[in-house]
Specification:
mainly alpha; Amino acid/polyamine transporter I; globular; disordered N terminus
Length: 443
C-alpha cells in the first residue's frame, strides 16, 4: 500500500475548461432517469401541479447545494471529489467512509444507464428480446474501450454528446407543446390523503426518485484537478450546468404532462416515447427510441469517467490498492477504469433499475451531508485557506443545505427501508475495512 504523499506526485493533465465543465454536469445528469421516472412519479402524486412543484423544489435544492460545492471544489481542486474535503475536515476514517460511499454511488450509475440502453435497443430490434442486460454490457464495453486511450477523447465525446442531447430534447419538447393533447381530466387530491400522511410519504418517495435524476450535478468536482483554471471555470460550470438541467427537466415533464393523461403516464415505463407518439404520430416510436439511445449514451460516457477518478483519489490516499492511481500516457487511470468496468457488470447482472436508482438517492444524501458539514468545519479550522469562490449567504445557505439534506435522508429512510438498511450495513462494514487498510499503510 502506497501512501498519499507518494501517489500525489503522479500528475493529471490540465486540459479541461468551461465547456467541458458544463457538458459534464449536463451530460452526467440528464439521462435514464428522465425517461423512466415520470411514470413512477405519476403513480405516486395524483396531481400535475404537485408533480411539477416536486421537480422544481428538488431543482432549487440542487442550486443551493451547488453554491457550497463550488467553494469546496475551488478550495481543494483534487481528483476524487467530496471525500477530499471530508477527509481534511474530519480526518482519515470519515474521509475513507465518504469516499467509498461516493464511489459505490457512482460506480452503480452506469448499470442503470446500460439497462435502459438495453431496453431501448431491444425495442428497435425485437429479435434481441430477453437479452436486455447482455446488450447493456456491450454498451459498457464499447465506452470503456473508448475512454481508455486518454481524457482528450473522453472530453470531446462528452461535449458532442451533451450538445446533441440538449438539441434533441428541445425538439421533443417543442413537438409535444404544439401537438393536440389527449383527453386529460383534472385529478384532485383527496383530502383524506393529506391528513393521514399518505401524500407526505408519496411526496418523499417522489423526491427520492427525482433526486436520483439530478445525481450528477456535482460531476465537475471529480475533474477539478484536470481543469486549466478551476477557480474561474468550476463555479460557472456548476451554476450554468445545474440551471440548464433544471430548465430542461421542467420543460420535459411539462411537455409529457401536457400531451398525456396522468393515468397513461403512470402505465408507460418509457413515458417520453408515449409523449412523442402523440406529438409526431405513431411512426415516431422508432425515431424516439434512437433519440433516447443517444441521450443516454451521453450520460453513460460521463459515468465512464467519474468513478475511475474517485478510485484514483482513494488510491492516492492509501484507501485502495496503489495500482489504482496509475495513469497511461493519455491521462486515464486505466486500472481504476477497468476495475469499475467489472463492478458495473456485477450491478447490471444482479440488480434491477429501481433497486439501483433508489439506493443511489439515499447514498447521495449521506455524501452531500458530509460535504456540507466539511465546509462548515473547514471555515473554522482553516479560515485562511485560499478560497477562489465563497458560498453566497454563508453560513446560512450552507446550514440550510445541510438541514434539508438531513431531512431528505430521514424521509428516504422512512419511505425506503431497504435502501436505508443497505447503507447502514455498508457504514458498519466500513470501519473494519479501514482498520485493515490502516494496518497495511500509514493512512
Amino acid at each position: 500500500m502506497i501512501t498519499g504523499d507518494s501517489q500525489q506526485k503522479v500528475p493529471l493533465k490540465k486540459v479541461l475548461g468551461l465547456v467541458f465543465g458544463i457538458s459534464i454536469v449536463v451530460g452526467s445528469t440528464i439521462g435514464a432517469g428522465i425517461f423512466r421516472v415520470p411514470a413512477s412519479i405519476a403513480m405516486l402524486l395524483p396531481d400535475k401541479f404537485l408533480i411539477l412543484t416536486c421537480w422544481l423544489v428538488t431543482g432549487l435544492y440542487i442550486l443551493l447545494c451547488a453554491s457550497s460545492y463550488a467553494e469546496l471544489t475551488t478550495m481543494l481542486p483534487k481528483a476524487g471529489g467530496s471525500f477530499n474535503y471530508v477527509k481534511r475536515a474530519f480526518g482519515n476514517y470519515v474521509g475513507f467512509a465518504a469516499g467509498w460511499f461516493d464511489f459505490i454511488l457512482n460506480v452503480g450509475a452506469p448499470a442503470f444507464f446500460c439497462i435502459v440502453l438495453g431496453e431501448y435497443t431491444v425495442l428497435l430490434f425485437p429479435g434481441l428480446t430477453g437479452l436486455n442486460k447482455q446488450v447493456g454490457i456491450v454498451y459498457l464495453t464499447v465506452f470503456t474501450l473508448l475512454n481508455l486511450p486518454g481524457i482528450k477523447i473522453g472530453s470531446a465525446t462528452q461535449k458532442i454528446t451533451s450538445i446533441l442531447k440538449v438539441l434533441l430534447l428541445l425538439a421533443l419538447v417543442t413537438g409535444c407543446f404544439v401537438a393536440k393533447p389527449q383527453q386529460n381530466p383534472v385529478t384532485l387530491i383527496p383530502t383524506a390523503t393529506v391528513f393521514n400522511g399518505t401524500l407526505v410519504i408519496a411526496f418523499f418517495k417522489a423526491m427520492q426518485l427525482i433526486l436520483s435524476t439530478y445525481d450528477g450535478w456535482m460531476a465537475v468536482s471529480f475533474f477539478a484537478e484536470e481543469d486549466e483554471n478551476p477557480g474561474k471555470n468550476i463555479p460557472r460550470s456548476y451554476f450554468i450546468g445545474a440551471g440548464t438541467v433544471i430548465l430542461l427537466y421542467l420543460l420535459i415533464n411539462g411537455a409529457i404532462l401536457y400531451v398525456l393523461p396522468l393515468t397513461e403516464i403512470a402505465h408507460s415505463p418509457l413515458a417520453a416515447s408515449a409523449a412523442a407518439a402523440v406529438a409526431f404520430g405513431s411512426w415516431s416510436s422508432v425515431v424516439i427510441d434512437i433519440v433516447a439511445i443517444f441521450v443516454v449514451i451521453s450520460i453513460l460516457n460521463a459515468y465512464m469517467l467519474i468513478p475511475s477518478r474517485i478510485l484514483l483519489g482513494l488510491s492516492r490516499e492509501g484507501y485502495f490498492i496503489s495500482q489504482g492511481a496509475k495513469l497511461n500516457k493519455g491521462g486515464t487511470p486505466y486500472i481504476s477504469l477497468l476495475i469499475c468496468y467489472v463492478i458495473t457488470i456485477i450491478f447490471i447482472v444482479y440488480n434491477t433499475f429501481e433497486q439501483v436508482f433508489s439506493l443511489a438517492a439515499v447514498m447521495l444524501t449521506v455524501v452531500t451531508a458530509c460535504s456540507f458539514a466539511s465546509l462548515l468545519m473547514l471555515r473554522k479550522k482553516e479560515p485562511d485557506l485560499h478560497r477562489p469562490y465563497k458560498v453566497w449567504g454563508y453560513p446560512y445557505m450552507t446550514i440550510l443545505a445541510l438541514l434539508v439534506t438531513l431531512f431528505l435522508f430521514v424521509g428516504f429512510a422512512i419511505s425506503d427501508t431497504r435502501s436505508f438498511l443497505i447503507v447502514a450495513v455498508l457504514f458498519l462494514l466500513s470501519y473494519p475495512f479501514y482498520r485493515l487498510l490502516k494496518g497495511k499503510s500509514d493512512i
